[in-house]
Predict the 3D structure of the following.
Amino acid sequence: MQLNGRTVLVAGLGVSGAAAARVLLRLGARVLLTDAAEPAVVAELTADGGTWLGPRETVPDGVDLVVTSPGWRPDAPLLVDAAARGVEVVGEPELAWRLRIPGADGTPAPWLAVTGTNGKTTTVTMLEAILLADGRRAVAAGNVGRPLVEVVTAVEDDSTPTYDVLAVELSSFQLHWSSTLAPAAAAVLNVADDHTDWHGSFADYRDAKARILRLAPVAVADAGDPVASALVAGHARPVTVTLGEPAPGQLGVRSGALVDRAFSADPAGELLLDLADLQVPGPHNRVNALAAAALARAIGVPAEAVGRGLAGFRGGAHRNVLIATVDGVDYVDDSKATNPHAAGASLAAYPRVVWIAGGLLKGADVDPLVAAVAGRLGGVVLLGRDRADIAASLARHAPMVPVVSVASGDDDGMDGTGVTGEATMTQVVAAAAGLARPGDTVLLAPAAASMDVFRDYGHRGRAFADAVRALSR
């Protein structure tokens, strides 16, 4: 992609937007910068040659390309104006795809790409572990880790690319603005109700997810997810994963082990890993492991390396992490469960749960989740702006389950009374401890976003961990 002398408008200067601006400036583009407010990074970018325009709703004359933040909705006035002017709008991943540097063999590092409503980060980091176990120079990037524009333009002293394969996580927002991405293999893990406030409808959200598959030679999905499996059904090389006995063309579970019958030369399949050696709990993580294995196998990673990579994987922060066991009760942080689908997968991993839930539901319907998990609940503690919606669903589907509601509001890191998120979580954990009995799991799986009371899901998870540790002191 020739950028020297071209004028590029970067709209949104978060982590990915700032990274895109830095790379564009380094490649000789004339870079214009805009955002809803002036972030601190503007000083750095203008010192390097960028031009700060301030907030604006129209595209200046002479702009050749707009690079948009994933946080900017398609109906943002500036992006609507770009479309009306015929100016191409891309996201940072699409820009990165066009900026890839060829390796010694003349081809850029392949991408193995993952999307889905839930499980993306776990699957991508599992995939990174597998690739590293095989001796590949690999990194997880995109919607997790470093921005892709930084990774694809990273070079060694001899100007060869730093990485020879990328494990790429892509959100629906990023995929909406991507048109030419052609990963070597791609996976849609699952598609459930989420982000319709951004996309406008579930169909548009689903179709954005499907864009990851269009140019990929191998398309992977969970056979147990009807929407995802339908998306790969008409693909030239569909591969599905299952928690049952795998059929030809599938990866699945046989006699307590993960088995590959999609890429193995043996028609009976090839053993990848004994389930006892997988260190992260829950059926959803078995699906994630199978999907990561499928993507790795698609580029020839041997079964032995797949097994070693998965056996060594310990999971990420705020994803089903056991914080402590206090008085016979396990306290587990899955603050990353920011929608009902993710919370349902987490709840399914434990037989009897005191559930901590609530926050910003983003229009998602919690009724199917509550109805499905009612039999597992020993109690529920609710917090956050939309806690009343969950309470109403519990009254319909789990009327005998004790529910405690902790007052909290929507003032970025503070509850509605001016109390910090940490203090609110201390009340929540104390209430959960009062409901739990030995053998239970107190599970933070909020089914909602965190920004009403906390800065982000990480802040929420850290507050939970601190409150749990205080219990045992």
